[in-house]
Amino acid sequence: MKTYDWIVIGAGFTGAALAYELVRTGFSVLLLEQDATLGNATRYSYGGLAFWSGTTPLTRQLCDEGIARYRILAQELDTDIEFRELDLLLTIANDSDPEVAAASYSHFAIPPKLLSVDQAWEMEPLLNKKAIAGALTVKHGHINPEKTAQAYIQAFLRLGGEMEITQVQNFTSNHASPTIKTTTKTYHSANVVVCAGGFSRQLLKASGIPIRLYFTHAEMIQTPPVEVQLRTLVMPAHLQRFQLEAESSRVDELWNEPGNEPAPPILDAGAIQFQDRSIRLGQISRVLTEPNAEIDGKISESWLRRSIGEILPVLSSLPGTWHHCLVAFSSDRLPVIGAIPEYHGIYIFSGFSNPLVIVPPLAQRFRNYLSGKEDEIICQLSPVRLQSPI
Fold first, then answer.
1. Interval 211-259: pLDDT, tens
2. Domain 3-79+145-212+335-386 in this protein, CATH class
3. Which fold would CATH assign to domain 84-142+214-329?
4. Cβ(197)–Cβ(41) under 8 Å?
5. How far apart are the C-alpha atoms of 309 and 50, rounded to whole Å?
């Protein structure tokens, strides 16, 4: 019976990055993924790297480390991850005050520049000038998240890591080592780290482990490659998703039952074109406490197309397919990283709803921390901070 140093559950972006860093250090690592073809948040992510968006010393440092890491990552992994830096346009609704919108970003590491309607239209001619009062702009990083995750996985395998496609049902922990039960077999490891994104809470709950981690159902439309050219990444200046996350995580008990909807859904209308010329249109965010909840894709697609059409009219009628995935988040907009208290050998590395740019540096920092190196940032992200006060 083989026992690994680490079993990483989930081969999306976070799990792939962490598995690579762990095997690179010399640990024996098994990476488990339930789907042969990814259909998770990695697959449907915008791929944006908001390295300019740090608002605290902690997030500013991580964003700086993140963008520096991405600039060399393709060379390190020996794969094109389609990294680039492009113009982000944050559209300001025509019933909003542009100066107020700009002021709300003044505490960011790199405050976006305020543009008039005409200036915004010059940068992105597909915009509907009548729908906005102006826009903010800043340079923004971008990758193909699916290709980046695959690049991490291939590098992980080249270094001797092992990977299995199987669904984890639950795991147990004792003073010896965790045991992971899947649909096909049982695995043993000195340590287990859960990187299952929006499914992390459900998986841990099935194993009798409570965690204050949540998820939204994110919905978007993916087009095939098209002739239309989108010059910028377009998003609203006022993102409702963060408010939705804050409101829906106030009462943790609501998440212990599958039929609840702690807050109504929101739609942040935006679009990004990938290098293969396909476009991702999104996104709706819902907080349904059932991870496998059924959603009426036709109604959602109609809502998405109508909202996108107000800002970028030509995109609303493009051919495309509605998709939906889970996106993990915490109550304080920071990821949850570290040992789960009172459960020997069980760790969590999840909750990266904002932003994707900090995953690589935190995977490196967590690897070093697990190797015995002190790290104040990893300590600040521990699940202990989310426990209810006694």
1. 999 999 999 999 999 999 999 999 999 999 999 999 999 999 999 998 9
2. alpha beta
3. D-Amino Acid Oxidase; Chain A, domain 2 (3.30.9)
4. yes
5. 25
